[in-house]
Automatic annotation (TrEMBL):
One of its GO terms (cellular component) is cytosol. This is Trehalose-6-phosphate synthase. GO terms for molecular function: alpha,alpha-trehalose-phosphate synthase (UDP-forming) activity; trehalose-phosphatase activity. It comes from Actinomadura syzygii. Signal peptide: none annotated. One of its GO terms (biological process) is trehalose biosynthetic process. Belongs to the glycosyltransferase 20 family. It comes from the Bacteria. InterPro entries: Glyco_trans_20.
Length: 482
């Protein structure tokens, strides 16, 4: 029985299975895992007794979950912030429909405003079948949490995969105190209304089953309140930021998430990062370096970022031969056609740029579509310019990690549509992510920026980035339940 429980789709590790049947464990990716990895790590504090419940994501995870007593994993040496981890063995079909069809193809698209004409919303009988799997998936989490929570325990349910779980858990265990936290943006009401009425209503009611609904910025919290306002039978009080519904009151709060500077610097000083930094430095020589690090994700806007780099080389040919763009994109959500096509578009655009500008002794662009965390940390250290240009993003921790690790005082070119812009806009050069020309000019300005100004801005960015380390973010959510 645990006093504090966390629930999220992706856990801190996932497994792969080699041909001889051996399981290998590796770090989970994405901002949510980076944030939660530090939850119990407040320096000097006694770690709370935390149980982190997550889903098995593939066959290897299911094998690991089945082979562990009650799904509890032995995680010696992994960055779980001191939490014990329990992996749920969710049936493959249920997982596929809940994660791919509902969470990532529908809810993610709505909150990131990703629908466009070739991929316009179309909801039919199949949507309802997928939705049943989403309900079953959420119920599996609610069952597990209800079983493992001590009386009156605090439970922090994370993200859009688990919108229904707060209400389901309250029904099973009214004694628990429940927070739901959204790591994504929240859609404005006119966009949220694209969802079928029954589904949109259940999403809102599900989250309103929590005592506290947390968001990364004021903007997303306020969009959630706007959506609740159109829900029959609810009363939204803007002054106290509460929503009353069926006799239950949910408080809405904003909890920014930053990085743990000390832990990040320690990790970046390890041998694997140092070696990769050396190799990268040899590869780029003394040229200036523009770095980006993302999942290969539609909302990260990688193709427009590459187009902006091309426009920089066209409009300011003086940079040719003097700059290298390093774009690390690690594979994401490959089960979805949109993501596979997007990866192809990234690779196609990259090839066009290399063919157009590359010379015998200058590679203008190095794009690598694979996951190498230490290499990303090494690149942050070497960056002169960090490009973070999502079309919409809950927070974006790359914009915070980069300045903390930069050894050259990097300039940050940052989309105004990333949640991080609310905290970093003073030190960053902010851009409209759809405006490729503006992005190209911001890259030009960043490359020209005098070293002293860059260093001064970078110092301010690093201070803002570390102001709210994950353990404080997490403690704030729990404190909101008192
Ligand atoms: C975003 C979401 C997280 C998710 C991460 C990686 O940060 O808010 O919930 O874990 O992306 O995505 P994936 O689908 O690979 O878990």
């Amino acid at each position: 029985m645990s006093q504090v429980l966390v629930a999220s789709n992706r856990g801190p590790v996932s497994f792969s299975l080699s041909d001889d049947g051996a399981l290998t464990m590796r770090r989970g990716g994405g901002g949510l895992v980076s944030g939660l990895a530090g939850i119990a790590a407040a320096p000097g504090d006694a770690s709370p007794d935390v149980l982190w419940v997550c889903s098995s994501l593939g066959e290897a995870d299911r094998t690991a979950a089945r082979g562990s007593p009650d799904g509890r994993l032995d995680l010696a040496g992994y960055e779980t912030g001191g939490a014990a981890v329990r992996m749920l063995d969710i049936p493959a079909g249920t997982f596929h429909r809940a994660y791919n069809a509902v969470a990532n193809s529908t809810l993610w698209f709505v909150h990131h405003l990703l629908y466009d004409t070739p991929r316009s919303p179309h909801f039919d009988a199949r949507t309802r079948r997928d939705w049943q799997s989403y309900e079953a998936y959420n119920a599996a989490f609610a069952d597990a949490l209800a079983r493992d929570a001590a009386p009156g325990a605090k439970t922090a349910i994370q993200d859009y995969h688990l919108s229904l779980a707060p209400r389901m858990l309250r029904e099973r265990r009214p004694d628990l105190r429940i927070v739901h936290f959204s790591h994504t943006p929240w859609a404005p009401p006119d966009y949220f209304r694209l969802l079928p009425d029954d589904i949109g209503t259940q999403i809102l009611l599900g989250i309103l089953g929590a005592d506290h609904a947390g968001f990364l910025t004021e903007r997303w919290a306020s969009a959630f309140l706007d959506c609740c306002e159109s829900l029959p039978g609810t009363r939204v009080d803007r002054a106290s930021r509460t929503v009353s519904c069926g006799g239950h009151v949910t408080r809405v709060g904003v909890h920014g998430l930053g990085v743990d500077g000390t832990a990040l610097r320690q990790r970046a000083a390890e041998q694997d990062v140092v070696e990769r930094a050396r190799a990268l430095r040899e590869q780029v020589g003394d040229r200036q370096l523009i770095v980006r690090v993302d999942r290969t994700e539609l909302s990260k806007n990688i193709v427009r970022g590459l187009a902006a780099y091309r426009e920089l080389l066209v409009n300011h040919p003086e940079w040719r031969g003097r700059v290298v763009h390093l774009a690390f994109a690690y594979p994401s959500r490959y089960d979805l056609r949109e993501y596979r096509e997007y990866t192809e578009a990234v690779e196609r655009t990259a090839k066009q740029i290399t063919d157009e500008f590359g010379t015998a002794d200058w590679d203008p662009l190095i794009v690598q579509v694979n996951d190498d965390y230490p290499r990303s940390l090494a690149a942050y250290g070497l960056a002169d310019v960090l490009l973070v240009n999502p079309i919409r993003d809950g927070m974006n921790l790359v914009a915070k990690e980069g300045p903390v690790l930069s050894q050259r005082g990097c300039a940050l070119v940052l989309s105004r549509e990333a949640g991080a812009a609310a905290e970093l806009s003073e030190g960053a050069l902010t851009i409209n992510p759809y405006d490729v020309s503006q992005t190209a000019e911001a890259l030009h300005r960043a490359l020209l920026m005098p070293r002293a100004e860059r260093a001064e801005r970078c110092g301010r960015l690093a201070a803002a980035a570390t102001a709210l380390p994950p353990h404080r973010w997490f403690a704030d959510q729990l404190a909101a339940l008192d």
